[in-house]
Specification:
7-stranded mixed beta sheet, globular
């Protein structure tokens, strides 16, 4: 069963923008995942992340950042690496564009980066 884990927003200033959501909605920061280019907030059932613009290059999205207006990415979690591998071709067959084939990230998740039919970025993840 898949579920929504994170919504990430690309931000010019991750500290200021995440601070706004903390102040307005009272979402606490998830300090364990803080980095110079990322802040995460606990929204209760899922999380809201804020990526610095450096993340465009990290996710191989630089060529889409200006022309497609990518401002966020959805992270959909699945139960295994095999589920990531199984679901990527299903997503592509349904109209998604594969941006980055499944790989292990530096933070030890197994994921693939895709664009939905309207150009919004999402990842299919397995947190190892």
């Amino acid at each position: 069963m898949a579920h929504l884990s994170y919504v990430n927003v690309f931000a010019k200033d991750v500290v200021a923008l995440s601070g706004f959501y903390q102040r307005v909605f009272g979402f606490p920061e998830i300090e364990a995942i803080r980095s110079p280019i990322f802040r995460g907030l606990d929204t209760g059932k899922s999380s809201l992340g804020f990526n610095a613009l450096d993340a465009y290059e990290l996710l191989q999205l630089s060529e889409f950042s200006d022309t497609r207006g990518i401002k966020f990415l959805l992270n959909i979690d699945v139960d295994s690496q095999a589920d990531v591998d199984r679901m990527v071709p299903i997503a592509v067959a349904a109209g998604a564009t594969l941006v980055k084939a499944p790989y292990v990230t530096y933070y030890q998740w197994y994921q693939s980066v895709l664009l939905d039919p309207e150009g919004n970025v999402f990842r299919i993840n397995f947190m190892m």
